[in-house]
Amino acid sequence: MPVPATALCLILVLFSTRNAGGVCLAPNKITFPALFAFGDSIVDTGNNNKRFTIAKANIPPYGRDFPGGAATGRFGNGKVFSDLLAEGLRIKPLLPAYLHPVLQGEDLETGVSFASGGSGFDEFTVKLQEKANATISKSLFLVSQGNNDIAITYFLFHFLYDIDAYTTQLVNSASSFIKDMYELGARKFACLSLIPLGYLPISRTFGGGFQRNSVDWLTQAAVKFNSKLEHELNHLNSNLPGTRILYIDIYNPLVDLIQNHKKYGFEDSSHGCCGTGLIELNYGCNELLSSFTCCNSSSHVFWDAGHPSERAYRMIISQLVHNISHQLLDI
Ligand SMILES: *[C@@H]1O[C@H](CO)[C@@H](O)[C@H](O)[C@H]1NC(C)=O
Ligand SMILES: *[C@@H]1O[C@H](CO)[C@@H](O)[C@H](O)[C@H]1NC(C)=O
Ligand SMILES: *[C@@H]1O[C@H](CO)[C@@H](O)[C@H](O)[C@H]1NC(C)=O
C-alpha cells in the first residue's frame, strides 16, 4: 500500500493541473489517519478564542475569506497553514481547533489543532494518551514553534537576551516536545521553520525605519534558530528509533514570495492587507479600522501585520505536501 501511494503522488505532482495549485493530493484512503498540530498561530485554528491571550483573531475582518466569512480565531483571512496541509493531504478540508465548542468525536479521530496563538503547548497530552495506539504512530504531528518567542519576546526584550543562548533554549524546548510526543507513540513529525520574522509588516513598522526596510537582527535571529532547529531534528532522527522527522523550510519560500512578489501576482509584500501594526491591536486588524482593509487579500503576501495571507500559504504548500507524503507516508 505505501509504495503505490508514493508512486501515485509523484504522478499527480507531474501531471496535476497548475490551476489546482499543483498540490499533490494523496489519493483517498492512502494518507495519514490524522493530523495533529501544535504550537503557534501559524497552525492555530481557533484555540486562542478560549484562552487568555493578548492577540485575538475572532473579530472581523479576520476570516473574511473563510467559508461563511466567519472569524473563527484563525490568524488569517481564510484558511491557515494547518488547514491547507490537512486539505492537501486529503485528510479533511479544515483542521478543527481542539477547543472548538462543537468538536465532534470523529473530529478528534482525524486530527485537531492543539496550537494556540500567543501561547505554547502543554496539558494536552492526556487526550493523546487516551488515543495512544496504532493510529498515533501513523498520524502526522505538525509543529510550529518559536515565532511568538522571537517576534514578540525577543523583539521587545532583546537587550536582555543573548540570541545564541536564547535560540538554543527555544530549540531545546522544541526538541523536548518531540521527545514527549515520541514517548506517547508519535513517530511522524513535520516541524516548520520560523517564518521570515525580519520581513513581517510589524517588524518593518517598528524596526525598519522610514523606508520600512526589513530588520536585519531579527532576520539573523530567525536564520540562527532555523539552522539550529534543522540540526537538532537531524540529531533526533538518528536517535529516536523508528521515527521520521522532517524539517520543513517555509522561511526561504516565503522570502522568495516577499522579494519577488510581483512575479507571483502579489501587489504588496511589506504591508498587511488589514494593517501594519502601527495603530491597531491584534497584529494589525481591528474592527473599527476594518474599513481600511485592502479589497483583495490575495494581492498581499501578508494578511495582517504578522501573518501570511491564505494565498501566500497556498503558494508555498504544494511542494511541501508532496515532500511530506513522499517522505513520511511510507514508514
Ligand atoms: C485506536 O484509536 C482509534 C481512534 O481513537 C480507534 O478508532 C481504534 O479503535 C483504536 N484501536 C485500538 C486497537 O485501540
Ligand atoms: C485578487 O488578486 C489575485 C492575485 O493577484 C487575482 O488573481 C484575483 O483575480 C483578484 N481578485 C479580484 C476579485 O480582483
Ligand atoms: C523537498 O524535498 C527535496 C528533497 O529532499 C528538497 O530538495 C526540497 O527542498 C524539498 N522542498 C521543500 C519545499 O521542502
Structure report:
Belongs to the 'GDSL' lipolytic enzyme family. Keywords: Signal. It comes from Gossypium darwinii. With 331 residues, the chain is of the alpha/beta class. It has one domain: SGNH hydrolase (Rossmann fold, 3-Layer(aba) Sandwich), CATH 3.40.50.1110. Helix content is 40%, strand content 8%. It is built from eleven helices and six strands. The chain has helices spanning 2-15, 81-88, 105-110, 125-131, 134-138, 147-157, 163-183, 201-207, 216-239, 251-259, 310-328; strands at 35-39, 140-144, 188-192, 244-248, 268-272, 300-302. Strands 1-2-3-4 form a four-stranded parallel β-sheet, with helices on both faces. The protein has a two-stranded parallel ribbon with strand order 5-6. It starts with a helix and ends with a helix. The relative contact order is 0.15. Residues 1-22 have low confidence and may be disordered. Bound molecules: 2-acetamido-2-deoxy-beta-D-glucopyranose (3 copies). The site of one 2-acetamido-2-deoxy-beta-D-glucopyranose has 4 residues, from loops.
